[in-house]
Amino acid sequence: MKSMADKGNALGPMFDLSGKVGIVTGGSSGIGLSLAKVLAQSGVKIAIVNRTAGTGEKAAAEIRKEGGIAASFPADVTKKDDVAAVVDAIEGEMGAVDILVNSAGINIRKKTVEFTLSEWQQILDTNLTGVFLACQAVGRRMIARGKGRIVNIASVGSAIGLVDRAPYCSSKGGVSQLTKVLAIEWAPYGITVNAIGPGYMNTPLIANLMKQPGFQDMVKSQVPLGRVGETEDLHGVILVLCSKAGAYMTGQTIYIDGGWSIW
Ligand SMILES: NC(=O)c1ccc[n+]([C@@H]2O[C@H](COP(=O)([O-])OP(=O)(O)OC[C@H]3O[C@@H](n4cnc5c(N)ncnc54)[C@H](OP(=O)(O)O)[C@@H]3O)[C@@H](O)[C@H]2O)c1
Q: CA-CA distance, 11 to 191, in Å (whole number)?
């Protein structure tokens, strides 16, 4: 009789994403690029959406070089017409979108009294309105088809207050709340909507912060696991949330932050 080990990986079909089409906003860099790559390795055809055509194409080319299928579709997620047009173009070229990952995001750090209204709006427009616009444009189509997976990249700052980051934390708290509302509204249509809340992740977004004196000591004192995260730390959960393995999870923000948010 064959042992369990001889029968191969029983979890394989649970994580099978072959032939799916996925949009990754912010897929040209950092977390978005890393998630785009692991989804592509799992068989997802990837549409990279970001503003800069050159970096989007470079990311898509990297994925293709690694054996995946990917193309770049430049767009600004803060612009409703851009988002609508790019979703049209992606569905025309790649097929019906099964997976939407919203990773496009920015941050500015300063004292709350020093923020200009335009800086506040720029962060809210990108991090929260951008997620709303992409979810709305893609969600309409997923509703019509009766299926879909959406994963929004929130932050540890969705759960806890981070000094000098008033607009960022406000936007990310909003992403977690938007995730819950969409999960309830769209559950009857077979769509799950979840969020990932990373702590500090080693990407270009925090490159300057990582160079600041005392940063590593601060991480050691505040993050129970005592280190900055690598984007690979998010790979397991994105595969769960986009596959059959995550079929009964919706409306959650899953914190992958080395335990930072549990203090
Ligand atoms: N790194 C961290 O420590 C950390 C922690 C928690 C949460 N997060 C969140 O994770 C997400 C990704 O962060 P990251 O660290 O990967 O940042 P990143 O390396 O700076 O990448 C940001 C991505 O967003 C795109 N983008 C920015 N504004 C956009 C817009 N208006 N329209 C379309 N694309 C836009 C950028 O491309 P273009 O500039 O070409 O548009 C780029 O692809 C963000 O939502 C961030 O808040 C990051």
A: 22
pLDDT higher at 3 or 111: 111
Output the CA–CA distances (angstroms, integers) from residue 1 to 11, 117, 240, in the order listed: 20, 70, 31
Which residue's CA lies nearest to atom 1 of ligand 1?
Answer: 201
- In angstroms, the Cα distances linking 216 to 188, 204, 219, 230 are 45, 16, 5, 14
Q: Write down all domains in the chain, each with its CATH number in brackets.
A: 16-255 (3.40.50.720)
Cβ(209) – ligand 1 distance below 6 Å: no
Query: What contacts 9, CB < 8 A, 6 or more positions away?
Result: none
The model's pTM is 0.97
Pair 142, 148: CB distance under 8 Å: yes
Residues in contact with 208: Cβ distance below 8 Å, sequence separation at least 6, in sequence order:
none
- 3-class SS at 253? strand
What does the mean pLDDT of the chain come to? 96
24 CB less than 6 Å from ligand 1?
A: no
What are φ and ψ of residue 227, in 5° steps?
A: -150, 160
